[in-house]
Design brief:
Helices cover 33% and strands 24% of the residues. It is α+β, with helices and mostly antiparallel strands.
Length: 527
């Protein structure tokens, strides 16, 4: 990916058009390009601006799928988790989990222990251990509440979901894919009654471009039904909202993840360290609002999360005023009419309708396997997809930036290599004096802000501060105090004049206050 100068400079045709720039679309574009196909990916907003930057940030096997008896999905997920841990250290990192146990709570210790033993077996390594209450409190001293009988310790992983998407897109572009954000699919093109491309429109300029394609994949997630409507597909997506709160570590200390059950409905919640803060999540509710507006946490969701956290960490007496920020995402779940949203399956699905292939649902962790399955469905249309390999790695070796020459610590060098891959050296080489220092209160370097503005298709200020780097989530004011220095970078790297900067600053702060700010106070209980 480069600067936005080549906005809609696209070929007249391609083997594959991918509509949707989240993790699913990015993975499909990468595997297709590596197989030798010509690939175009378009995203109507910013890359990862939908569900793929608003997830719970976990790369895991999914104990809930094991509890449902889905051994295949669990096995695939734990092995993909371990693959990502091996290939992308610094982007996907291990996290220790504590699954708390309480007297009378279901499932009980015996069943949880059996499940974790099977979890380890599927991952081909043993990791879990039973802890007494005293051992639990040594690891998580603020856990408390009635009936606490210990915990199980096990291992999973976490990531920066937006950077995961961006790194996959970098890999896809390096393999030859053309990737464009802020380009909308305005309608499908047909040949002989079958989908054979799409009319694309640059959202900023209005420029239109018809693109013929041997195959078109609808990877738009929660928006999938919109494109499916053009081929007569009946609505099948049940949008579910998951919301999260972020707290400063001094106020909500966590050395590792703690999983606990909500006292109202026994749904599992979690709190774990992420980017120097503690992330608390998640809700699981029907999202009745329009998908054209960014989701945000509701007052009942705030109260639900706080009630859960206070039940598991009573000594902390957390309130909404303690939170730094919040974020919400809409999950693209295939609705089957379950009364409780949490009971709906999270497995991905593939539909082919009049030549349009839709892929939706699924887990962040298994995006590579979803891509392989999707492309295998299209082998008759694109012979290059015969070369797609189920066992291929996702990432090329990144090569850490010159640690000694740049004066970086080992942890920072590892982090840069994980988040930027082969471009990590460019981040360091492009730094101005003082820019290899972190933004205060975050692990992000000023050099990463400059590199993103220069080379990662930033169109709006929220692209830069909420997805390329995450300082908008990590700082209490959304990074407002940093904006004068950010402005200087954007003027230089993005050629924004004073008028453009004022517009971007105003829009960003309004968006942050409406969609990401910490809630001022809890409201009515979320049932």
């Amino acid at each position: 990916m480069t600067r936005a100068a080549d906005r809609l400079r696209l070929p007249e045709s391609a083997d594959l058009l991918v509509v949707g720039g989240g993790i699913t679309g990015a993975g499909i574009a990468l595997e297709a390009a590596r197989a030798g196909a010509s690939v175009v990916l378009v995203e109507q907003g910013d890359f990862a601006s939908g569900t793929s930057s608003r997830s719970s940030k976990l790369v895991h096997g999914g104990l809930r799928y094991l509890a449902e008896g889905n051994l295949r999905l669990t096995r695939e997920a734990v092995r993909e988790r371990d693959r990502l841990l091996d290939e992308a250290p610094g982007l996907v990192d291990p996290v220790g989990f504590l699954f708390t146990l309480r007297d009378g709570e279901k499932p009980g210790a015996a069943l949880v222990g059996t499940g974790l033993a099977l979890y380890d077996l599927l991952a081909r390594q043993g990791r879990h251990a039973r802890l007494t209450p005293d051992e639990l409190l040594l690891r998580a001293p603020h856990v408390g509440g009635p009936g606490l009988s210990g915990a199980f310790a096990y291992a999973d992983a976490a990531t920066d979901d937006a950077r995961l998407v961006l790194r996959v897109l970098h890999e896809a572009a390096a393999a030859g894919a053309a990737t464009r954000n802020y380009v909308r699919c305005e309608g499908l093109l047909r040949r002989g009654g079958r989908v054979a491309g799409a009319l694309l429109r640059d959202v900023r300029t209005g420029e239109e471009h018809p693109l013929g394609a041997a195959a078109v994949v609808n990877a738009t997630g929660a928006w999938a039904d919109r494109l499916r409507a053009e081929v007569g597909g009946r609505p099948r997506i049940r949008p579910l909202r998951g919301s999260h709160l972020l707290f400063p570590q001094w106020r909500f200390p966590t050395a590792q993840a703690v999983t606990f059950r909500h006292p109202l409905d026994a749904r599992p919640l979690f709190a774990y360290p992420w980017e120097g803060l503690t992330l608390l999540g998640t809700t699981d509710l029907d999202h009745p609002g329009t998908l054209d507006e960014e989701p945000s946490i509701s007052a009942p969701e705030v109260d639900y999360l706080l009630k859960g956290a206070r039940s598991a960490f009573p000594s902390l007496a957390l309130s909404a005023r303690d939170a730094v920020s919040s974020f919400s995402g809409v999950r693209p779940v295939v609705g089957t009419g379950k009364a409780r949203p949490s009971e709906e399956s999270r497995e991905h699905v593939l539909w082919e309708e009049e030549g349009l292939v839709t892929v939706t649902g699924g887990k962040l962790t298994t995006f590579r396997l979803i891509a392989v399955e999707t492309l295998r469905l299209l082998r008759r249309r694109v012979p290059a997809f015969e070369r797609v390999r189920a066992d291929a790695g996702v990432f090329r070796p990144s090569g850490a930036p010159p640690q000694e020459a740049a004066g970086l610590g080992a942890a920072t060098a590892r982090r840069l290599a994980g988040r930027h891959g082969a471009a990590a050296g460019e981040v360091v080489a492009g730094a101005r004096p003082g820019e290899l220092e972190p933004v205060a209160g975050t692990p992000w370097l000023w050099a990463e802000i400059r590199h993103a503005a220069r080379a990662e298709r930033v169109v709006r200020l929220d692209d830069l501060l909420l997805r390329r780097v995450r300082v908008g989530l990590l700082l209490p004011d959304g990074g407002a105090s940093l904006l004068p220095r950010v402005a200087a970078i954007c003027r230089e790297e993005l050629a924004w004049d004073d008028e453009r900067w004022r517009m971007e600053e105003q829009d960003y702060l309004a968006r942050w206050r409406a969609r990401y700010a910490a809630p001022a106070a809890p409201a009515a209980l979320c049932a």
